[in-house]
Structures are given as structure tokens and as C-alpha cells.
TrEMBL record:
InterPro entries: Ni_insertion. This is Putative nickel insertion protein. GO terms for molecular function: lyase activity; nickel cation binding. It comes from the Bacteria. Keywords: Lyase, Nickel. Gene3D superfamilies: mk0293 like domain, Transcriptional regulatory protein pf0864 domain like. It holds the Pfam family Ni_insertion. Belongs to the LarC family.
Amino acid sequence: MSKIAYVQCPTGIAGDMFLGALVDGGVPLKYLIDRLQTLNLGDEYSLTAEEVQRQGQRATKVNVNLNQTSHHHHRHLPDIETIITQANLPETVTKNSLAIFRQLAIAEGNVHGIPSEKVHFHEVGATDALIDIIGTCIGLDYLNIDTLECSPLPTGGGTVKAAHGRLSVPVPAVLELCQMGKVPLYSNDIEKELVTPTGAAIVTTLAQKFGQPPTMKLTKVGLGAGNQDLTMPNILRLWIGEKEETTEEETVAVLETQIDDLSPQIFGYVMDELLQLGARDVFTQPVAMKKNRPGVLLTVICDVEKVGECERCIFEETSTLGIRKQIQTRSVLSRHLETVNTKYGEVRVKVARMGEKVVNIQPEYDDCVLIAKRLQIPLSEVMLETKRGINNGQ
């Protein structure tokens, strides 16, 4: 089994909330303090944790207390990279911390129209943001999290004071990060800044997926408190558990429309066009429609980002006036291609696995067709010979 964590953000996410959830979930505060000392920033801050209440619910609040006598640092990306690479941090922590700050630099650069290396970080380059981001990476490494997933993020609203004056919420850097990470957003009707650039940078860099909670065996829930008292408990919940290495999950879009006034000849062309656009699968079924008319149900399975192109093709090439669509999660086996030697030559085979177990091996149809045509022999014989080669190879 592998370890998986799911970040549930009903009131948004900030770096200190994530840190609080990690400490609450089992990362010793002293371990964080000791690891962070290698950054050589000890004269700028102290790190404390406390148990707090948010709307009657308990959570852990981690505080990065800045020393008042310390200069408030505004750093560029190369400054931050030097701090991280010169520290004695685990390799995964170094890699993830650099990736988060580089993602943030790209987003800030896009907002201001300058190269990422020339971005002058303000709030996110300050000491507390460094501790939040690097501390989060240290905590995830301590818990041996293999996979991180995240819920959709609430947009918040209103305005917030920043280094460049008052900004609309979500602030530009957060919107840019969410766009880069294709993050699903929604409104929870709370007109506050709920997602900070630091929090957005962490999850858009490290989360492998945004959506509903994954299938997992839950072993621990870490609760991290935010600074504000809101109309609902301002708590980030970190679900920690184990995930069996069985099938993989992916999100797809399913488009459907039934048509009763189109020449059957056109369906073949439309299906080919949709597959050329990148649809995963296209198929038709006969259906009985209103007024007892025979019709065809056209179904397209595609990646979410391909929905627009596939819909455009259907509308332009068919007579339909409406398309239904659903976003679904499907389980898939991991698979890869291998080559099998047969008396007719090499044939690729698709090997499907559930974890470490091989559950299915099938000859590649196109390879077998080419051999059958070239040698003028039955396709069934090529496929049978390929399966013999598979068995001999095992």
C-alpha cells in the first residue's frame, strides 16, 4: 500500500493552515524546528503551535512569529533558491520546495509581465512564507506521503490590502496559479481572502489531482486552523491514509446526444473526426425516440480539456441542437506495451496490471492486421500465434 493525503479546504488554504494540519496529523513540532534551522533564518522568526477553537471545533494553529528587530525581507527567486539548496534538507523536500517557488515565480511573472527570475517577491518572499512552504514539504516528507490530492478551492471575495495596494479577491497571483493548475473553483459565499498565494502555490504544484476524496483507508485526520473567525469553522482538514495499489483513477467527460434526422453515412465521418481530435472513445447505439422515430445515441468519452473541441465538432457536423455532458471518475488498470517474438515477426502486446499483478495481456490489433495482410494469412492465426508467444515468454 502507498500513503495518500487529501487536502479538504472548505474555507480555503494558506501555508500556516497546511502546517497546522501536518502538526495535528503527527509531525512533531520539534522535528520541524530542527529541520528548518538549516535554512539559517533562525534570527528572523520563531515557530510555535497551539490548540484553538474555530466555531466550536478544535484545531491546531501554527504561528510563524517574526522577530520585530529583524529586517522584513523581500527576496528574488535566486535568493530563495540559494537558501533552499544550501540548507541540509532531504532531497524530496529540496525538490518540492524549489518547484513550489518556481511555480509561484512563473505566476507572478505572468501577472506583472516579467521573466520569473526577475520577480521581486513581497509577501511570498518574506520569512513566514518561506517557513510555511518549506515546512509543509518537510511535514509531507516526514509522513511519507506518496500521493497528494486536493478538494476544489473556494474563491472568496471582497478586497485585501497587499504590497501593490488593494487587490480584488482572489488576488491575481492566486487566479493565475489556479488557471495554471486547472483547479476547480466555487463560491462558498464568504467574502474574505480564503486562498493565499502561498497556499495556492503549494497545492497547484504538489497535488496530483483536484476533486472529490479518493478511495482510501483513513488512518488520521489533521486539522489546521486559519487566522480568521468565519461563518463556518475555518479549518483545513488533511485526510491521511493508505491506498491499495489496485487500479488508477482518472477524470473523463462523457458527452451524449441522440439524433433522428441525420444520414447514417455521416456518423462514420463524425466518429473519425472526434477520434482525430483526441477523444478516448466514440460509439453509437440505436434508440427509439419520441413519435416512435428510430434514432442514434452518440456517446463520446474524452479528457475534460477536450470537451470544447469535441462539442464544436458534434454541433458543426451533425444536426443535434443539444449535448448532455457529465464529468465522471473511472478506474483504469496501469498498462504498457511489450514486444513478443513470433514466427511471423515481432508483435506488440498491451500488458495490464493491478498493482504488481498482471491481469490481462492482449496483442495489438493493428500489428496483427499488418502481418496478416503482408503474409496473406488469417488474422485469427496471427493473434493465436502471438498468444502462444506470450505464454512461452511467461
